[in-house]
Predict the structure.
Amino acid sequence: MYIVAIAWIYVVFMMAITEATPVAGVMTFLLYGVFPLTIVLYLMGTPKRKRNRQRAENSDRLAAQQKAASAVPASVPQENTEAKKQ
């Protein structure tokens, strides 16, 4: 994905340096290269961000379940444990 972005920036840079004025070159580089490319890269990265968010939520949920499961034996009444010792 990034190789296409690098190639596009290169093409747009070559277009920009052939412009008549530096202002036109900068505008060409920004309007044909940087702005559209940031939008495309953001949209193409959406599935990855969604997967990362779901993994984080799942790991948080799993950690909460493990914490709750480890807290259960601590709630056993002490009277029963003392009776078993005798």
Remarks:
- The radius of gyration is 29 Å.
- The CA atoms of residues 1 and 50 lie 18 Å apart.
